Amino acid sequence: MRNFDDAFKMNSQTTVTKVIQLEQVSPSQKIKDVFSNQYDTFFRIERLRSVDGEPAVYVQTYVPYEIAPTLDQEDLEKQSLFHILQTKYGIVIDCVRKRFRAVNANKEEAGWLNIEDNTAIQKVETLVLDKDGQPIEFSISKDRSDISVFHVLLKYTQTKIESME
């Protein structure tokens, strides 16, 4: 598990994050469901992330206000959100759950990502959990499939098969 910057910097690529909007919002039903109705107010962070000068990821991130009440005072263009949550708010990040789906970019997403309308992209829903298994961040990103490539390693564990004899 790596943050956006670290994942691309491993390949000597440069990254830039542009915050489009950061605002306090009431949660939609989907956000309420993700956070089990625990919070009333969230920061919604809308960012465009580029790799080697090319727009690569358009992402909307939700963080409960109660978890990070001064998040809107942080420089999210220069610092990783993970880093801020860990160092300023003492959150111990344990794991991330991701859900991938192939979708076609709508006109707005295509504009942000500098691609043709209706181009295939990856929609990635990411849920970040702390050491107690509690959700602390949820994001929905639209990733250019020609730039953001995911590699997965699955380890095979053989189950014991009992003889029928």
Task: Describe, in plain words, how this protein is organized in 3D.
The protein has 165 residues and is an alpha+beta fold. The chain is built from four helices and six strands. It has helices at 4-9, 29-34, 81-87, 107-113; strands at 15-25, 42-51, 54-64, 93-104, 120-130, 135-144. The protein has a six-stranded antiparallel sheet. A hairpin with a 2-residue loop joins β2 (42-51) and β3 (54-64). The longest helix has 7 residues, at 81-87. It starts with a helix and ends in a 21-residue tail after the last strand. The model is unreliable at 1-10 (pLDDT under 50).
Overall helicity: 10-25%
The number of helices is: 4
Query: The biggest beta sheet, please?
Result: 6 strands, antiparallel
User: Largest beta sheet: what is the strand line-up?
Assistant: 1-2-3-6-5-4
Proportion of residues in extended strands: 35-45%
Please state the average pLDDT score.
89
Instruction: Report the end-to-end length measured between terminal Cα atoms.
Output: 45 Å
Order of secondary-structure elements? HEHEEHEHEE
Low-confidence runs: 1-10
What class would the helix/strand composition place it in? Answer: alpha+beta
Radius of gyration, rounded? 18 Å
General shape: globular
